[in-house]
Amino acid sequence: MSFIDVEMGGRVVSRFPFVMKKRLGSPVIRMPKYTRTLGPDFALPPSKTFRQEQNIRHVVDRTVASLPKYHGVHFYLDPDNASSFAFRLAGFRVYQDFTFRIMPEKTLDMAWQDCDQKTRNLIRTADKKLTVQQSGDVAPFIDLVRQELPQNHHDYALLEDLFTEARNRDQAMALYAHDGGVPVSAALLVWDDRVLYYWQAVRVRRSRVPGMNMLLIWKAIEEAKRRNLIFDFDGFGSVRTAKMLASFGQKPVIRPEIRFETPLYAMKCRLINVVRRHVLRKYRGYDLF
User: Fold this and answer.
1) Which residues contact 97 (CB under 8 A, 6 or more apart)?
2) pTM value?
3) Does the pLDDT at position 106 exceed 70?
4) Does residue 39 fall inside a structural domain?
5) pLDDT at residue 288 above 70?
6) Per its UniProt record, what InterPro entries does this chain match (predicted)?
7) Is residue 284 part of a domain?
8) Which of 11, 89, 188, 264 has its CA 20 to 30 A from that of 114?
9) How far apart, in Å, are the Cα atoms of 168 and each of 31, 67, 158, 190, 239?
10) Closest of 5, 30, 10 to residue 18, by C-alpha
11) CATH number of 183's domain
């Protein structure tokens, strides 16, 4: 992990953490594994809008100028990060990804009423059939992933280290849903002083209990409410998952995606995407780089 600090008036006003990886033989600046959002962490002095935006652009320009030589850049900004416009002006491409959030001021009852009726019914049904337990142990989660997803991109040692470190700071927990004592779904939650994230999840595909994922999400929402934190559904990996999360009744929240590629690196990426689509369809767990 590397950092770029920017100072103004003798004090640090921004820190940009990143990792440099080789991808397709090219140096690429990316987020560390298991990181969902990155971007400069600002500590700018309060000022009027024009001056604030000007300072952000200045910080981003200095950050970009301080980066090591790269052929590609790829990371996501937190929805509350105000630097996407500055990165666009600095020559980066800015796309829109999405997540869903529930703000602390929304009561648990209001969040429940926001849910689609079918979603509420599925949560009720799962709650009657399953027992959900909180835990500080990540090992059962890893065991369940190995059982259900033998081909995956997890780094179990890193996942365990990250969870344990966060747990030691009282910033992580695991949720396990059991059907007659047998684990059928699990989730890992992590949080800071503002946001609780639904970080990782896995389920037993052969289980016939409907709504078990939704139940764990709801239990995570309850935990966020108990801690008076924003609840972040933490994005989605498929259209099906996106529609399931949307059934909780929250508006999509933009999570800006920042990208840059040199022409050669862009050509490499296009080539590897073609190979993925047309050659390795039945080996979706295979990692090409």
Assistant:
1) 76, 235, 254, 255, 256, 257
2) 0.88
3) yes
4) yes
5) no
6) Acyl_CoA_acyltransferase, BioF2-like_GNAT_dom
7) no
8) 188
9) 23, 32, 15, 12, 35
10) 30
11) 3.40.630.30
